[in-house]
Specification:
The complex is a heterodimer of chains A (418) and B (176).
Chain A (H helix, E strand, L loop, with lengths): L2 H14 L6 H12 L47 H8 L4 E8 L5 E9 L4 E8 L10 E6 L2 E12 L5 E8 L8 E8 L2 E8 L10 E11 L2 E10 L4 E9 L12 E5 L2 E3 L1 E9 L2 E8 L9 E19 L4 E6 L2 E11 L2 E8 L4 E9 L2 E16 L2 E10 L7 E19 L4
Antiparallel strand pairs in A: 1-2, 2-3, 3-6, 4-5, 4-7, 5-6, 7-8, 9-10, 10-11, 11-15, 12-13, 12-16, 14-15, 16-23, 17-18, 18-19, 19-22, 20-21, 20-23, 21-22
Chain B lengths: L2 H9 L3 H10 L1 H12 L2 H18 L9 H20 L5 H6 L13 H10 L4 H12 L4 H8 L3 H24 L1
The chains are: A mainly beta (418), B mainly alpha (176).
Amino acid sequence: MTEIEQKLMQEKERIEETKAPKVLHERLQKALEKESKRRKYYMPQWIAVAAALILLSFVGYQYNAFAYYGKKMLGFDEIMPDTLARLHEEGNGQTLDQKYVFTNGTELLLEGILTDENQFILYYTLSNPEGVEDDLSFMQLKGLFTHSIAHTGRATMNEQETVLKGIRTFDPVSTFAKKLTLEFQGLDGWEEITFPYDPRAAMQTVLKQSINEKVLVDTGTIQFDTIIATPSQTTIKGKFKVDNYDRIPLGFSGVKLLANGVEIDQMSSGTSSAINGTTFTIGYDALPKDVTSLQLVVDAFIGYKQIDQTITLDKEQTIAFMDGEELIVNHAEITEEGVRLTIATAENILLDGVSLQVEDQKIPLQTTLRQDYITIHGKEYKERVILFDGEKLPEALVINGHYYAKNYDEVIDIPIRK
Amino acid sequence: MTVIRLVKRAKRGNKDALLQLISEQQDDYYQLALKYMGNPHDAMDAMEEMIVSLYRHITTLKQNDAFYSWSKTILVNQCKQMLRKKARVQLLEEWETIEVPSDADPITQSEQRIDIEEMLSFVNVYQREAIELKYFYDLDYQTIADMTDVSLGTAKSRVFTGLEKMRNRYRGERDD
């Protein structure tokens, strides 16, 4: 060992004597506690879908709902939503019993499927006495006129980590497909299994009709096109053109579906841009059996309010109200990069046209440095640090307007045509 | 329990498993964070950020046995991000002009430490970082490459060239 290396070694030994402070463990634990539990839902695997499905929209699912179900699948209770559990109880699935064995000995068993016009649901089991590594990654289902992308899933593992039970949803498959090929991630590359499919075993659509209603919101319009209710799900589709729609996290979560006056749980919502505008899909739970009335309610959606408010900054902390919405402005500080201001509002508020007033001059907002969620007196706020050019303390903060979660309370009645 | 088993549990959202993984090498993480952040307060902040980030992203870790190098890389990135935020435009070039940390207290610093500081001041800031990660923190070249965002070859050559420079200078000083 050279002298240099010896010296380096000695320094290493010195560094190794540094012990982490005792409080560290507790701090790490607390930091983790604050993190909400990771949900078992996986993010949808969005992949561009070719526009090959147009033809299919002319062909409905005109099949009788028949019980096709022989074997009862065990072990899925924990991950099965109530609606699916009930459908299984009633015997609406198809058993598959298709096997694939990976080179490491793990066996994939496709146990069964539950299908309708809204979605394709796969039940599978991974098992290996030596231990199951991880859940599988699914890509898509292919078949005649079928190109169904995998979406969300849930899975659960036994204590010994030898058996994993999972559910994965896919886009619905075509009524013409008699064979389906499932693509999934193997140990080295994509693998596939092809299995027979009986489209007649798909559950019958309960209700499918157009809505054709527009709702005007402050910064655009939402057009509701169709509703498709199947035994497993209810889907509302449409197009929208709303400026800055994605600037607050609200999305479509404030659009409610009422059946017989009772709100149906929203399960998912998604948007995708295409050449002819942006489309959206909102998924709700299945409708109750005896629906007599259906209503869509745009309860909350992004709104814009012009306020042109000037907030004088002469205190350590200023609490202002912009048309009833609270805005907390903390002291401004001058840094090397400019003037920094810490402000906090409710989560769904986005300020627009923000500037500082310094000696009769208006300095526009340069950038937002960071954003955090904080709790003050049990209330949750979105706090951000914003930066302006300049080196003088401002007299006031000027705000032209703000985006917010606005209550529209627009009700659309969907007449039931059966 | 083995690391791999703990990683698998952590991947399924088990917070205790993740905490246990970190605890087992807690001092190593801390020493690394301290190197970058310079004080215990910021080092612990960086580790808090790290553990949250690990929890959110652990499902993306492909090789379970690579947990430690992966998580340390995330820690280093976290530290660098925080430093950048703290002192936005402190470019690496500027660092080079700083020979010895100004807060180094000559009374508490041992002779040997000054020696090392002197030796390390002969190499540029990138070489110094690579040498420190390799010799003080026991990291392999691939991890160093990941942490410093360069290729494996560059990481190796920084260490070798840096050591070479130190050797030459050291010898030179002696001969003078």
